[in-house]
Write a structure and sequence with these properties.
This protein is 20% helix and 31% strand. By secondary structure, the chain is α+β, with helices and mostly antiparallel strands. Strands 1-2 form a two-stranded antiparallel ribbon. The longest helix is centred in the middle third of the chain and has 11 residues, at 14-24. 0% of the residues are buried.
Length: 55
């Protein structure tokens, strides 16, 4: 399932991370049906908010 990730850090070099991610990015098309906010933890991630889009 396609997704978009946002990442923030005061110590990591974000330009280097973006450069590496850009090398494997594949553009796609589709319909967005749901938004979810999740927080990464040591076991994966927890979805803390979901919103179904109408359309």
């Amino acid at each position: 399932m396609p997704h978009i990730s946002s990442y923030s850090s005061e110590k990591d070099e974000l330009a280097a991370i973006i450069s590496e991610m850009s090398k494997t990015f594949v553009q796609s098309t589709g319909k967005i049906s749901r938004l979810e906010l999740s927080i990464v933890n040591e076991n994966g991630f927890n979805i803390v908010y979901s919103y179904d889009l109408k359309g």
